[in-house]
Amino acid sequence: MPTDEKLAFTKRLKLALKRSNKKITTPAELALQFNLRHPNESITPQAAQKWLTGKAKPTADKIETLAKWLAVSAHWLRYGSANGEQSIPPVRQTKSHQNPSGVLSISELNLIAQVRQLSEHQQMLIAELVEQLAAEWKNTPRT
Fold first, then answer.
1. Exposure check for the chain: N or C terminus, fewer CB within 10 A?
2. What Cα–Cα distance (Å) separates residue 27 from each residue in 33, 35, 98, 120?
3. What is the pLDDT of residues 69-123, one digit of tens each?
């Protein structure tokens, strides 16, 4: 029987999957993609179905694998944000070629503040646009 905690996890998982580069549309696809990344025991499509319907929540090691794969924090995936919001998952901070220190600039902080004022749907649109632009940038040859 789905509990509030399991349903909240399901909501976060679906949001992270929706933001991922590889679109997952079935439990079988979720199980396959997860099993390609998880070093321990594999899962069945039935287990993935339970994750997607709120009937089960994965163990901590499986959440770690999901978080790495989906580029979100394991804490957010497991518990949500500190204030209970279910909006855009925090992406693990990485160093870029333009900002090797990983410290956010004033303009980046201002941009984040503006995005936080948008609706959840608008934030999703911004996140998808940024992901597309980043993917294009990554695949553009440099001279």
1. C
2. 10, 12, 38, 25
3. 998 889 989 988 754 444 555 454 444 555 566 677 788 888 888 888 888 888 8
- In three-state secondary structure terms, 103 is coil
Q: Are 80 and 88 in contact (CB under 8 A)?
A: no
Phi, psi for residue 39 in degrees, rounded to 5: -75, -15
What is the domain partition of the chain in residue ranges?
1-93, 102-143
- The CB density around residue 50, as the number of other CB atoms within 10 Å, is 19
Q: How far apart are CA 102 and CA 95, in angstroms?
A: 5
Distance CA 56, CA 60 (A): 13
* Distance of alpha carbon 78 from alpha carbon 64, whole angstroms: 9
Tokens of 61: 């090691």
CATH number of this structure's domain 1-93 = 1.10.260.40
